[in-house]
Amino acid sequence: MKLAALRRRDIARCVEIEKQLFAGDDPWSARAFHSELDAGGYYVGAYTAEDKLVGYAGLATVGRPGDFESSVHTIGVDDAYQGQGLGTALLRALLARADELHAPVFLEVRTDNDRAIELYARHGFTRIGVRKRYYQPSGSDAYTMKRPAHSEQEVG
Length: 156
Description:
Aminopeptidase, 7-stranded mixed β-sheet, Acyl_CoA_acyltransferase
């Protein structure tokens, strides 16, 4: 597997994976992915040796130098490729970008997604709140989690 910048030509594949992973809620549309890329979001794809997209992740950053804040907007890995460390690799790519900016990172995760919650906790995230009925139409709750900003000295 290799990680590389998400290509616009792979957005249709992102939408397929979204529908697979988030069928009970509101999966992202192609328009949502295009909007994120148009807004300058940092998006990474996970590609097989055959150049097939099997996962993706996105980070949005706001603010000014010295006062940036980042949010994980999405991480998705095709069911057939889960359990191989792709989610971890994608998250680490996003965190490396946030670390370059010395930005804290926020995210929302379903309260019943134990696997993702454990992944985030292993990478320094802590729960800071609950968003009731955050995911629609299921009405599932989400934890809001935060990872403090890391400097290059702390990381390296």
